[in-house]
Specification:
about 325 residues; alpha/beta; seven-stranded parallel beta sheet; 10 helices; elongated
């Protein structure tokens, strides 16, 4: 009989049906069952759970789990959520990295070409060309040099943008300048025309982009947050925009999602709001990655490398 694998955290029947179809096709010899349909015996027998932004309580209700495979790159809801040590495997997928890098380049170009100003002028019926700023004259700072940050750096440098990358610990990425740690951050911020957030949400990065660090950016700089909402302190961001120190912010992630209707970000003239679409999971590509991890586990009995619980990623 095929091994049972739990599917936890789908948003509604349509997404559940899609995920079941695509994942099951890639995972020959496995029996994928949504958590709410599992019998007590199946919940006890499941060694692996595939999760999509799940309720941690449902994952904890699978006592026989050996490891958890996330369909998201971010796993902050799961780290530290269980009484026992449970390997949590992030989705490291080339297609997600490509999609995120595409989004970073698109919205960096949006800012470099003064699109927010032209959108505002259209609403006000103002005909006014702005001086052209070359990519070579627009320095982009990347917070985070993991798989997504590295892919974004490559796309940006190919397009002619100078890139400085920051990471918690030393890293080398071909073609870009890198800095690291608390000492490396202020110097990078002071050189950025556009700051892009791609770090995971951890205790260290929560509130990382606060009033002090926003003030360290070049006057007129812009911000793109494609990481997690709590990395940027919203009130501090609004204050920096209102003061004219920042020119614009492109936000795809928020403290609460969906963004509440009463949030001032919806109507702020210096903010572009996106509905968490910068790095969507491509299910066919993700299914291939997950299936490969599962086949290797069945072959060796060893779970894939999980996130570092201490670091949070």
């Amino acid at each position: 009989m095929a091994e049972v694998v739990a599917l936890v955290g789908c948003k509604g029947p349509a997404q559940e049906a899609e995920y079941l179809q695509i994942l099951s096709a890639a995972m020959q010899g496995e029996r994928l069952v949504p958590f709410h349909r599992m019998t007590e015996a199946e919940r006890a027998a499941a060694q692996v759970a595939i999760v999509a932004n799940p309720d941690p309580a449902e994952v904890a209700a699978l006592p026989g789990l050996v490891w958890v495979q996330s369909l998201w790159a971010g796993v902050e809801k799961l780290v530290g959520a269980f009484d026992r040590q449970l390997p949590i495997v992030r989705l490291v997928d080339r297609e997600m990295a490509r999609t995120m890098a595409e989004a970073v380049l698109a919205w960096t170009t949006y800012l470099q070409r003064d699109m927010p100003a032209y959108a505002r002028q259209q609403r006000e019926r103002v005909w006014k060309p702005h001086p052209y700023r070359k990519p070579a004259d627009t320095t982009v700072g990347l917070l985070g040099l993991g798989a997504l940050g590295t892919a974004a750096a490559e796309r940006l440098t190919e397009a002619g943008f100078p890139v400085i990358g920051w990471s918690r610990t030393p890293k080398t990425v071909a073609g870009i300048e890198t800095v690291h740690g608390a000492d490396g951050l202020p110097a990078m911020l002071g050189r950025c025309d556009i700051l892009v957030c791609l770090v995971p949400l951890t205790p260290e990065t929560r509130g990382l982009v606060n009033a002090r660090r926003l003030a360290a950016l070049k006057p007129g700089a812009a911000l793109i947050n494609f990481a997690r909402g709590p990395i940027v302190v919203t009130d501090d961001l609004i204050a920096a925009l209102d003061a004219g120190h920042l020119s614009h912010a492109v936000l795809d992630v928020f403290d609460v999602e969906p963004l509440p209707a009463e949030s001032p970000l919806w109507t702020h003239p210096g903010v572009t709001v996106l509905p968490h679409i910068s790095g969507p999971t491509d299910m066919e590509s993700a299914a291939d990655t997950v299936a490969a991890n599962l086949r290797e586990y069945r072959r060796t009995g060893k779970p894939p490398q999980g996130v570092d619980a201490g670091r949070g990623y």
